[in-house]
Design a protein that fits this description.
The protein is of the alpha/beta class. It has 10 helices and 9 strands. A hairpin with a 2-residue loop joins strand 8 and strand 9.
């Protein structure tokens, strides 16, 4: 039987009669960190897993094995209706995230269809795509998966205020650069690791 780390942590904490706050104090982390672990939003690093195992009398191997199913290759997409921008941007994203699965879409409708059937961890999204607004596409992505990180791409900084109101993680003016991508990755709502998210 496959156990999910978030379920194991929550049940073990409850069995010990500990609140999230007390467990956080014992682990020297914030209460929100514990909450994020129990909701499956973040995954503790290996050192913290060892501390959790000790604190909750759990087998460290059980905890490490429970993270395996959650540590998957991140799905990253780029959506831009200009093929030249897409062709130039995808290799830059690949250079910064070599372990990620990266897909490019010229048609917003195809990107939305992809997001319906695949968990998208990070989307680089053009704001102006013909008759389609990237702001609306972002809202659809977040309807399918509220934990999708969206970074808007545009040639115009005028959109910044509207962009933030959609729940996006970041905003970049074109052209895409490796340094710019790295800077945005450091600010993601749900940080990426080699295979997923981490605390």
């Amino acid at each position: 039987m496959k156990y999910i780390l978030s379920d194991i942590l929550k049940q073990a904490r409850i069995d010990k009669g500990l609140s999230q706050e007390i467990l956080a104090e014992r682990l020297f982390v914030t209460k929100s960190a514990v909450s994020n672990w129990e909701q499956g939003i973040r995954i503790p690093d290996t050192v913290t897993l060892a501390k959790i195992a000790d604190c909750l009398d759990l087998d460290i191997a059980l905890l490490v094995n429970a993270t395996i199913g959650q540590n998957k290759t991140p799905n990253v997409i780029m959506v831009d209706d200009e093929k030249i921008i897409l062709n130039g941007g995808i290799p830059i994203i690949k250079s910064v995230l070599p372990g990620a699965n990266i897909e490019g879409f010229i048609k917003p409708s195809e990107a939305i269809e992809y997001a319906k059937h695949n968990k998208v961890d990070l989307a680089f999204l053009d704001i102006e795509m013909g008759m389609t607004s990237g702001l609306d596409v972002c809202r659809e992505f977040l309807d399918y998966n509220p934990k999708t990180n969206v970074i808007y791409l545009t040639a115009y900084s005028d959109y910044a205020l509207d962009a933030w109101s959609t729940g996006a993680s970041g905003f970049m003016t074109k052209p895409l650069t490796a340094d710019g991508v790295r800077e945005q990755l450091a600010k993601l709502r749900y940080p990426l690791i080699a295979g997923g998210v981490t605390e």
